Amino acid sequence: MASKTEKNAKAATIALNRSAAHEFHLLKRFEAGVVLSGAEVKSARAGKVNLREGYARVKGGEVFLYGVHFSPYEHASGDDYDPRRPRKLLLHASEIRKLEKETQSGGTTLVPTRLYLKQGRIKIEIALAQGKRLYDKREALKRRVQQREIDRAGRH
Predict the structure, then answer these.
(1) Quick check: pTM over 0.85?
(2) Is residue 116 within a helix (H) or strand (E), and if so which, with residue range?
(3) Tens-binned pLDDT, residue by residue, of the chain (156 aa)
(4) Phi, psi dihedrals of residue 77, rounded to the nearest 5°
């Protein structure tokens, strides 16, 4: 039987970026807060978020999230809503310096992997990632198929 925290952790996930693990080698993961408007929070709680084309950049000692789509909340007033606007991420200064150094060295980027609720606050998990080559993707797919066949043989 799952503990109470395990149940809350599963229920708290709002959006996943599954393609991130397919497209990139995920090296390190960081938890960050997201600066959102009230309508964006309502939209996120309703699960109307798409992380697939998102990425993050360090700019001027701050980290910003680009390309993440928060669908407009139906009951919100205001017509000047941009669903893909850049959003500031809240991280510790030491983490920002570390991310800046890692991304400037080249070959790595910041990719959002998961948006979730933690103690009533919306958090995002970003990963320091390195792009996969085509043969890496094929190798991962081959391993997954082999593991699936082994699991099937074990059940019967």
Answers:
(1) no
(2) strand 108-118
(3) 455 555 555 558 898 988 888 888 899 999 999 998 888 888 889 888 999 889 999 999 999 999 998 888 877 776 667 788 899 999 999 999 999 998 888 889 999 999 999 988 999 999 999 888 877 778 888 988 999 999 998 887
(4) -95, 160
Residues 108 and 25: their CA atoms lie apart, in Å, by 9
Question: 8-155 is classed in which CATH architecture?
Answer: Beta Barrel (2.40)
Determine the distance from the C-alpha atom of residue 19 to the mean position of all C-alpha atoms in its chain, rounded to a whole number: 10
Rounded to the nearest 5°, which phi and psi values hold at 92? -70, 150
- Name beta bridge partners: 13: 116
The domains of the chain are located at: 8-155
Rounded Cα–Cα distance for residues 58 and 129 (Å) = 14
**CA 75, CA 66: separation in Å to the nearest integer?**
25
